[in-house]
Each structure stands twice: as C-alpha cells, then as structure tokens.
Amino acid sequence: MSIDVDVFIEDLKRENESFFTALPDDATQYWHTGMSRQDAIRALQVRWFNELRGVDIIGRFIGRVPDLTLKVLVGRQVGDEAKHAKVCRRRIEELGASVHDYQPTDEQLAFGDYLDTLIYPEEFFAAQQFTVETQSLKRNERALECFDPVTATMFREHINPDERFHVALGYLGLRTFARTTAAQQRARDAACRVRDIHSRMVFAHRAVEP
Length: 210
Ligand SMILES: [Fe+2]
Ligand SMILES: [Fe+2]
Hints:
By secondary structure, the chain is mainly α. It has one domain (5-207): Heme oxygenase-like (Heme Oxygenase, Chain A). The protein has 7 helices and no strands. It has helices spanning 5-22, 37-62, 68-94, 106-117, 121-146, 149-177, 181-207. Helix 4 runs antiparallel to helix 7 (181-207). The longest helix is centred in the last third of the chain and has 29 residues, at 149-177. It is globular and about 55 Å long. The mean pLDDT is 93. The structure holds fe (ii) ion (2 copies). The site of one fe (ii) ion (FE2) has 4 residues, from helix 6.
C-alpha cells in the first residue's frame, strides 16, 4: 500500500537533506567569498550553460506531463530558465568575457542526459524541481555574499525569486503524481540517482580551474 503523499514528500525531503548535509562543502557549492573577476566569470559561464540546457530539457519534459495545469506551470519555469540564461550571459559580457569559448564538463552533460531519460512525471519532478532546485536555492542565497554587488543584484532581482517557484513546483508535481507505491518508488529512485549525479557535477565545477 502506498503511504500518504505528504508523508512521502516529507520523508524524501529528509533523505535529500541528510545526503547533502553529509557531503563536503565542495560537492554542494562551487562559489566562495572573495572570488576574483575571473572566478566570477567562470562561475557565471557554468551557470549560463546549465540554465540554457535546462530550457531544452525542461521544455521537452512538458510533453511528458499529463496534466494541463502542470504543463502551464512547467512552461512558465522554462521561460524563467531562458531569462536566467540571458541575464547570466549579459553579465558575463559586462565583465568583459564571452560564452562562446565555454566548454561544458562531462559531468554537466551527464546531468542533463540523465534528466532526459526520466519518462514518468513523478521521476522528473522528484529529481529536477524537488531535489536539484532545492540545492540551487541554497546556492543562490550564497550568490548574494560571493559575487560582486552588480552580479549579486542580478541574482536577487532576476533569478532567486523564480527558483523559489521552481521548488514549489516540485512539491506540486509530487503531490499530483507520486500517489501509488510504484510511483513513489520511481520518484525516490530518481531523487537518489540525481543526488549522486548532481554532487559529482558540482564537485567538477569546483575542481576545474578557470
Ligand atoms: Fe534557473
Ligand atoms: Fe530553476
């Protein structure tokens, strides 16, 4: 018998928290205070790539969401991610660099490839919105202390409020679709797998020199 969906969501939230809090800092964040201009450019290029690829991956996911209201909300998320890619690119250019020479890491590509394999809506919502966006939310708050004031303002005004909506969408997606034992198991497996893939990606960002 499936457990109550709200109990399931709370359990999954706890599992995610205990995984990420047990990791060393450099597997959960790749920004640090007092970054040089070069460090900031590199961090923004990584972010730009993830936002831009998110547009395509989350856009494809809309086709796998069997509920019109949720399709509309995921569509709104896609629009947000496109805006994030644009503001990151603009800031990179203001800092005197470009996105053209940016080469994504293998771990970055593997992360997106994995999301594209998730067929069931509860899997995708568990992995992307519920797990990854929650981590992203914590990193975004750190942006305010790690980046220069202009970049920090960009995060505060144009990125962070949207990412809070994306996390809420993860809860709504799970509440809608993770209602059977099989669906809850799929959602839990996807969250577990993406935790591992995502932390490898963050660690790789940290390890790559600009
Ligand atoms: Fe974003
Ligand atoms: Fe997002």
